[in-house]
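Session log. Operator J.P. requested a structure for one protein chain; no other inputs attached. Running the standard single-chain path with token output.
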Amino acid sequence: MPRRNRDRRVPRAEPRPLGTAGWQRAESGDDGEWLVRNVSATQATKTYRCPGCDHEIQPGVAHVVVWPADDVGSVADRRHWHLGCWQARGRRRPTRKR
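Structure written below.
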């Protein structure tokens, strides 16, 4: 008799609210409350400048997009960071332009 394959997926504890894609998370630190979204290498199609190191984030490089949690919907306040720069922001301040 053939073996029956069971569904091995674990049911989600709570359903996501309608209208949310679930690809952003809230983070808090000494510098405030932030919403953070991961950008995969395949999704990264443009060049950005990281405020943590002042180097370019080239297309095809995974990174994060960060904006203040209290600023809903303002695209102007979103910043693209290298993941390492974002994680080190408490130890290292953004570079100043000369």
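Operator note: Residues 44 and 59 are 5 Å apart (CA to CA).
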